[in-house]
Design goal:
The chain has 394 residues and is of the alpha/beta class. The chain folds into two domains: 5-145 and 278-374, Response regulator (Rossmann fold, 3-Layer(aba) Sandwich); 146-273 and 380-393, Response regulator (Rossmann fold), CATH 3.40.50.2300. 41% of the residues lie in helices and 20% in strands. The protein has 14 helices and 16 strands. The strands form four sheets. Strands 7-6-8-9-10-15-16 form a seven-stranded mixed β-sheet, with helices on both faces. A five-stranded parallel β-sheet has the order 2-1-3-4-5, with helices on both faces. The chain has a two-stranded parallel sheet with strand order 11-12.
Amino acid sequence: MKKFMMATASVALMGGMAQGEEVKMGIILGFTGPLESITPAMAAGAEMAMTEVSESGKLLDGSTVVPVRADSTCVDATAATAAAERLVSAEQVRAIIGADCSGVTGAILQNVARPNGVVMVSPSSTSPGLSQVEDDGLFFRTAPSDARQGEVMADIIDSRGISSVAVTYTNNDYGKGLAESFATAFTAKGGEVTIQAAHDDGKADYSAEVGALASAGGELLVVAGYVDQGGRGIVQGALDTGAFDTFFFPDGMYGQSLLDTFGTDLDGSFGDVPSAEGDNVDAFGPLAEAAGLDPTAVYVGESYDAAALVLLAMQAAGSSDPAVYKDKMFDIANAPGEKINPGDLGKALELLADGQDIDYVGATNVELVEPGESRGTFREYDITDGAVETVGFR
């Protein structure tokens, strides 16, 4: 594929950008597609951090941050690549926050970010395969890999005395990776996966898929799909036919739109979603609410953290050039240093300007492990009376 040398040249020319200027940050998420109900809040979470930094006046001697949104569609790699090209070549962004879904994230990384030397930080791409990709040190994620989520799912289901499950997954990198990770972990615990079947998004009728799942049986249906697409269609079909009445919902199925659609029909179901607990999480809550956001919404905290990490790395490097600041990402995300919570970004910028170390904890207990991803914690939840109730953290 064309390497977009013009964009490469424009980015290179900006490497020595003077301080006190605009720093453009791309936000590329699925504003249309199977996650369209959750991505506006994610984008707003990233923009919270950008606004906080701009209003402090302390980034690179008074530089301001300008967010530029683009639509990944979540599922169309060609459209996502074109949107990312625009961010780099036309908008000349200094970083890309995103993408959201793993397949389009990989496409953007290989076709746009790497050829143009632009840092990417995804707040929600969780495919285990992204841990092995060639990234030239440019790709990071504040969401944990599904290699870990699969183990957490198996632990939760096993702890509830459930020994057999059926699994349906969206037919892409995210769904396949999560389903395989879970099945491996669950069978290692002695559990039985009666069927592990893909479903395609965008269909009007999932009766065939539900029929196959029903024939295989199981005490529970694990739905590794998307809340606004095929996953919801599978749930609808299962409830309509009585094939299953209890479900496990991982991160892609977490969203208010699911509860709005099915209400108390989902009572007794449960799931997990990347989340954290602690004083830093408590500090994030009022900030998010003041911005009109639900602080517990999926990947809002991870989005805030993704943008904050990039901006703090710029300050640590004294440059908005991705080739320079990418090497500071691990330094500011991990110990040693003064711990930095949400709302402390101005303080962090001051410390870095004075040459001091920071340990960015952020909204989600950020700790980067190789090759550049968050280890992460997960919130276990039940659905009771048509609403989500937190059970604990793992």
